[in-house]
């Protein structure tokens, strides 16, 4: 019965596509978290109350973040074609989607990091300074651990946005569930494929949300 | 031990310059508990932060333990800060760390090994009386317990100086007393100098040796706690003394007393420390053929002994009464003021 309903579905292709979606999401998530935290720290530390208070650097960082957040993702991919080609050597396949995915979502995550860091109690930072802590110590032993639940929630939100982005990237040939749904499901009018891909993406989103919430709650000792 | 000369901190807004701390000069002796009291906005909190340069001074010199704090570069300042403990009003503990790890934090900063840290943390936990709570997170502690962690953390690197920023202001009266007892205990046991700022005269009364009263960024009055209690010169100081001694409604009270007790001599006795252990009233009553009737009064304990006033009525032969008065004023350190002569 089920095989009748899903007559066009090729299970191998589906597994392959799901794997690609996972691959793209996780790889780009790692890049996004690294660049996002760096940018977020830069935004926070160079701000008016920051340890490295620097109006100029803060402005430059803010402009970069805002510009990349303003560009619609689908256009960003097209804009980055030459860059991707130079970096990866191709503009097709899951790896080729990574630069665009990371550049598209790192600024978004950077803002979430900035918000998380701003929530850290100023008194705790003052206490660390009073103990003679170096800036490095303050960043790694105070700022990041104290904002960890918010950083993790931010990763969850970003990961889910990234799953959406991978589907979009799929449409222009990156692979994954978006690619599969578009080329096989939409263009060949095989609605069952679109449906299954949607269900799987929704399940992936749920899994990410669940894991994210779980970790965030575990970390939060407040 | 600590000498502060001409210390100033200015904040400049667009139009004007505000002096949060204004040309402040103080000397604090080794091993004493020095209190700074003032209302909010008096500049006391800024003053404390200038001492370890959490706020950069605009002018002036700070010398702690022969080390000129104001002349240090940022690296040396960091090392100097490790020798200066600081306790905060809102505790400022890291919620992500347990009690044990919070106390270990300054030791991590100072670069001690894990074994050394564990040993020291253990001592400190004992010292502040938190032995069974070392694996708890700050959110599981009461305010008083959090402050004990704060104090243990401040003491971790064996500092010579402890700065207390309104350390008891967020605590209820009972917990406040427990924390103050702990501070006195530490002061005696470790011999470290404590500078504390507060807006509660109770705190000054209970644990300080000397006090400075701040108003508008300046020290308007300073001296031994007892002297300041006894002879408050500034209006602001008088108001603080009233916090502990009650509102000065003596004038009303006195005329009321004179009215009610219409015979005998009425005296006001000032207790100024030291006399705590003398049984003054019973001694006088035994020595002279007089009756003493205590009318009203309030006596409070400071680090230097009792301080307060007592109104008494003395009845008896004139000669005996006069002899008693002479005895009190000459032989004891209690000051006598005759409110009304016998009639």
Account of the 3D structure:
- The complex is a heterodimer of chains A (222) and B (343).
- Chain A is an all-alpha fold and 222 residues long.
- Chain A has a single domain (2-219), classed as MetI-like fold (Orthogonal Bundle).
- Helix content of chain A is 82%, strand content 0%.
- Chain A has helices at residues 2-5, 11-45, 55-70, 73-79, 81-88, 94-118, 122-130, 135-146, 148-174, 176-186, 191-219.
- Chain A is elongated.
- Chain A starts with a helix and ends with a helix.
- The mean pLDDT of chain A is 92.
- By secondary structure, chain B is α/β, with parallel strands linked by helices.
- Chain B folds into 2 domains: 2-243, 3-Layer(aba) Sandwich (Rossmann fold), CATH 3.40.50.300; 250-340, ACT domain (Alpha-Beta Plaits), CATH 3.30.70.
- Helix content of chain B is 38%, strand content 30%.
- In chain B, the strands form 3 sheets. Chain B has a 6-stranded mixed β-sheet, with helices on both faces. In chain B, strands 2-1-4-5 form a 4-stranded antiparallel β-sheet. A 4-stranded antiparallel β-sheet of chain B has the order 12-13-11-14, with helices on both faces.
- In chain B, helix 3 crosses helix 4, helix 3 packs parallel to helix 5 and helix 5 packs parallel to helix 6.
- The longest helix of chain B is centred in the middle third of the chain and has 18 residues, at 173-190.
- Chain B is elongated, with a radius of gyration of 24 Å.
- Chain B starts with a strand and ends with a strand.
- The relative contact order of chain B is 0.12.
């Amino acid at each position: 019965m089920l095989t009748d309903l899903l007559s066009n579905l090729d299970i191998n292709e589906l597994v392959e596509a799901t794997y690609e979606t996972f691959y793209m999401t996780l790889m780009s998530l790692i890049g996004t978290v690294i660049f996002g935290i760096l940018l977020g720290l830069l935004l926070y530390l160079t701000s008016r109350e920051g340890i490295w208070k620097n109006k100029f650097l803060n402005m430059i960082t803010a402009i970069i973040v805002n510009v990349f957040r303003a560009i619609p993702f689908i256009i960003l991919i097209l804009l980055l074609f030459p860059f991707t080609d130079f970096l990866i050597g191709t503009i097709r396949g899951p790896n080729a989607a990574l630069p665009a995915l990371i550049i598209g979502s790192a600024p978004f995550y950077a803002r979430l990091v900035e918000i998380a860091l701003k929530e850290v109690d100023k008194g705790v930072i003052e206490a660390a300074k009073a103990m003679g802590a170096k800036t490095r110590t303050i960043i790694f032993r105070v700022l990041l651990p104290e904002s960890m639940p918010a950083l993790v929630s931010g990763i969850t939100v970003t990961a889910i946005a990234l799953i959406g982005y991978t589907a979009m990237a799929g449409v222009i040939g990156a692979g994954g569930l978006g690619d599969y749904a578009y080329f096989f499901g939409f263009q060949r009018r095989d609605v069952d494929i679109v449906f299954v891909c949607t269900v799987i993406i929704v399940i992936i989103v749920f899994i990410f949300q669940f894991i994210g919430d779980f970790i965030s709650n575990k970390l939060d000792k407040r | 031990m600590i000498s502060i000369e001409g210390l100033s901190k200015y904040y400049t807004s667009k139009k004007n310059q505000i002096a949060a701390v204004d040309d402040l000069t103080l000397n604090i002796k080794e091993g004493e508990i020095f209190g700074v009291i003032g209302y909010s906005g008096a500049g006391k909190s800024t003053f404390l932060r200038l001492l370890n340069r959490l706020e950069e001074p605009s002018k002036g010199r700070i010398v702690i333990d022969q080390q000129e704090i104001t002349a240090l570069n940022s690296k040396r300042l960091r090392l100097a800060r490790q020798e200066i403990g600081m306790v905060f009003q809102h505790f400022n503990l890291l919620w992500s760390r347990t009690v044990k790890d919070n106390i270990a934090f300054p030791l991590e900063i100072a670069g001690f090994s894990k074994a050394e840290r564990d040993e020291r943390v253990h001592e400190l936990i004992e010292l502040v009386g938190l032995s069974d709570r070392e694996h708890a997170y700050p959110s599981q502690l009461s305010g008083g317990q959090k402050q004990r962690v704060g104090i243990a953390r401040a003491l971790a690197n064996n500092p010579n100086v402890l700065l207390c920023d309104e350390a008891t202001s967020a605590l209820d009266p009972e917990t406040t007393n427990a924390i103050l007892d702990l501070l006195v205990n530490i002061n005696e046991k470790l011999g470290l100098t404590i500078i504390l700022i507060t807006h509660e005269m109770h705190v000054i009364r209970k644990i300080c040796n000397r006090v400075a009263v701040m108003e508008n960024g300046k020290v308007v009055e300073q001296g031994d706690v007892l002297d300041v209690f006894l002879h408050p010169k500034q209006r602001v100081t008088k108001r603080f003394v009233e916090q502990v001694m009650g509102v000065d409604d003596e004038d009303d009270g006195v005329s009321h007393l004179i009215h009610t007790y219409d015979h005998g001599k009425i005296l006001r006795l000032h207790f100024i420390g030291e006399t705590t252990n003398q049984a003054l009233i019973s001694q006088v009553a035994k020595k002279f053929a007089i009756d003493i009737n205590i009318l009203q009064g309030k006596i409070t304990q400071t680090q230097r002994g009792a301080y307060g006033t007592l109104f008494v009525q003395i009845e008896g032969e004139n000669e005996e009464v006069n002899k008693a008065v002479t005895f009190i004023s000459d032989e004891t350190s209690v000051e006598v003021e005759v409110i009304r002569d016998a009639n």
